[in-house]
């Protein structure tokens, strides 16, 4: 990784983190409603019966109501669990509101732990991001979990990153290990950016 690219990523992440901190509770709730609407439509469009998603932190566009509604419709939802070796385990979302705290203080499921290959069976991956650009390049939060997961999948399904509207940028710093996403979901729109990424 070049020092310039690393510095650019760190600076952009810090700016985006700060912007997210400034959002009001009403703005967060409105964003969560929009995200649920957009994700419901995407799942229906792709006829996805099994998906992976993530438990949003307080500053991320909320995913919890979407996850509850998807489960109520009979969709199998896998949620990630961080591991010390940089891989992700998975757990099937259930009706329990019990949430654990993962390695980095992030919310994680408390159900039965499945190994990293459990995600190979999903029809759609919904992942967090700090920003996404118009070419499908995703800026994560710097730990590489989702880049490793996507890069190691033999047959990767469509991957959509969830961000706020202002985080769809013209360009984000990119390195060789950064995996492109199929599209991006914001509270107001869903964009297909890199349909032939695999």
Automatic annotation (TrEMBL):
<comment type="similarity">
    <text>Belongs to the 5-formyltetrahydrofolate cyclo-ligase family.</text>
</comment>
<keyword id="KW-0436">Ligase</keyword>
<keyword id="KW-0547">Nucleotide-binding</keyword>
<keyword id="KW-0460">Magnesium</keyword>
<keyword id="KW-0479">Metal-binding</keyword>
<dbReference type="InterPro" id="IPR037171">
    <property type="entry name" value="NagB/RpiA_transferase-like"/>
</dbReference>
<protein>
    <recommendedName>
        <fullName>5-formyltetrahydrofolate cyclo-ligase</fullName>
        <ecNumber>6.3.3.2</ecNumber>
    </recommendedName>
</protein>
<dbReference type="Pfam" id="PF01812">
    <property type="entry name" value="5-FTHF_cyc-lig"/>
</dbReference>
<dbReference type="InterPro" id="IPR002698">
    <property type="entry name" value="FTHF_cligase"/>
</dbReference>
<dbReference type="GO" id="GO:0030272">
    <property type="term" value="F:5-formyltetrahydrofolate cyclo-ligase activity"/>
</dbReference>
<keyword id="KW-0067">ATP-binding</keyword>
<dbReference type="InterPro" id="IPR024185">
    <property type="entry name" value="FTHF_cligase-like_sf"/>
</dbReference>
